[in-house]
Write a structure and sequence with these properties.
Elements lengths: L2 H14 L5 H10 L1 H10 L5 H14 L7 H16 L2 E4 L11 H7 L13 E5 L4 H4 L3 E5 L6 H16 L3 E4 L5 H11 L4 E4 L13 H10 L1 E4 L9 H14 L2 E4 L8 H10 L3 E4 L10 H7 L5 E2 L3 H8 L21 H9 L8 H8 L3 H13 L3 E4 L2 E4 L7 H6 L1
Parallel strand pairs: 3-4, 3-7, 4-5, 5-6, 7-8, 8-9
Antiparallel strand pairs: 1-2, 2-6, 10-11
Helix pairs in contact: 1-3, 1-5, 2-3, 3-4, 8-9, 11-12, 15-16, 15-17, 16-17
């Protein structure tokens, strides 16, 4: 089969069938895209529902009964793309990300999310970046539309930090967490991809028009739906599989109990991508979904950009452990710390009395107390030892100042 013929057939199928159709995906894999198109158009070897949907789309496109239906549709699509400053890619193009093909495996593993999960037939793109290359190091950041101040801060900081470190931020271009993540990535000087649930010519939601325009100029706008397609509720859920498949992992920042962002995390698990969740206040309705997901096996709690990169990055990209502020007594070994703990601040005690309180030998106390005095933790007098009112910094640190 010629690649050009396959490409044209996939473009036509992308125009005639809603994205994600498992029936169509299986047919294409079994007989090839041109033959699958012929069967879908002719209504043989496919279910009546699929054949009826294809006929309705053909009538709407004005190509019903065309002798060269695939060529006519492809010509229409190429003309639309040129007018809109967009381009169309399919699985036979170099720009196509191999990661999308993992959706075949997700589809075979069952209808866990009550939705078809097959790979896209074709993708509409607008922007200067090359898709496959841009997604090589990418993370999706998703969450609620009704974002709180906490969620806004986290989404912005995470996206900015990922962008600064050379990671592409992928999200859905929606209100709330999505647009905040896109803005954070742009502010960080990085790449960002908005996966849309409508035509490439639609700025949805209208409130995000300026950001979407900037993404189209500097990053990438991506959609499976042809120009003119309106966003429907089910299309948002369908596009979430692409957000999950495109990236190495998904971070859910905020989500209510019924948030659509939870489906993206579900797809990430299904595709064996990293599923990461940011915890929130236990009394916040916008963190209920996060806390539900954190109870699912395999979910990773993240609170810093470094922890995200540790989860999705290469071997050795480890997050530094979080440590509290250093204290002077951190320099002591366990025996010295135990002895120091037995010394009183206002009453002097002999070494033997301190040993009895600490539960150590007199020899250990007599040997350790002079060192504790030298380090500035205790002072000695005629009656014994007592705590120094303000411990000095360790000797080594004093010399460094």
């Amino acid at each position: 089969m010629r690649a050009g013929e396959d490409r044209v057939a996939r473009m036509a199928l992308g125009m005639l069938v809603e994205p994600g159709s498992r029936e169509l995906g299986v047919l294409v894999r079994n007989v090839g895209a041109p033959e699958a198109l012929g069967r879908a158009v002719g209504g043989f070897g496919v279910k009546p529902a699929l054949a009826g949907a294809v006929r309705a789309r053909m009538r709407a496109a004005g190509v019903e009964g065309s002798a060269d239906l695939a060529g006519q549709l492809a010509e229409q699509m190429d003309g639309l793309a040129e007018r809109l400053g967009a381009r169309i890619i399919t699985a036979v193009d170099e720009e196509w990300p191999a990661a999308f093909d993992d959706l075949v495996r997700a589809s075979r593993e069952g209808n866990m999310l009550r939705r078809d999960t097959d790979p896209p037939m074709c993708i509409w793109l607008r922007g200067p970046l090359r898709l496959a290359e841009t997604l090589e190091r990418s993370v999706s950041v998703v969450g609620a539309r009704a974002i709180t101040g906490y969620g806004g801060y986290v989404a912005s900081e995470f996206a900015y930090g990922l962008a600064e470190r050379g990671w592409t931020v992928v999200s859905g271009g929606a209100l709330g967490v999505d647009v905040t993540a896109h803005r954070g990535a742009l502010a960080g000087g990085g790449d960002t991809v908005a996966v849309m649930a409508c035509g490439i010519d639609r700025a949805y939601p209208a409130a995000n028009a300026a950001v979407l325009e900037q993404i189209g100029a500097e990053g990438l706008l991506l959609t499976e739906w042809p120009p003119g397609t309106q966003p429907h509720k089910t299309r948002f859920l369908t596009r979430n599989r692409v957000i999950a498949a495109a990236t190495r992992g998904t971070v859910m920042v905020e989500a209510g109990s019924r948030s659509g962002a939870r489906s993206t995390l579900g797809y990430a698990r299904l595709l064996q991508r990293s599923a990461m969740v940011v915890p929130g206040p236990v009394n916040s309705a916008m963190s209920v979904g996060c806390h539900i997901e954190l109870r699912q096996p395999g979910t990773v709690l993240v609170s810093r950009v470094e922890e995200i990169i540790e989860e999705v990055g290469s071997v050795g990209e480890l997050a530094e452990p979080i440590q509290g502020a250093g204290r002077p007594e951190d320099v002591l070994d366990p025996l010295q710390a135990r002895i120091l703990d037995a010394v009183r601040p206002r009453r002097a005690m002999t070494a033997e009395q301190i040993a009895a309180v600490a539960g150590v030998s007199g020899r250990d106390a007599r040997r350790s107390l002079p060192l504790l005095e030298e380090l500035g933790f205790v002072v000695s007098g005629p009656d014994g030892y007592r705590l120094r009112s303000t411990p000095r910094a360790p000797i080594g640190e004093e010399e460094d100042r």
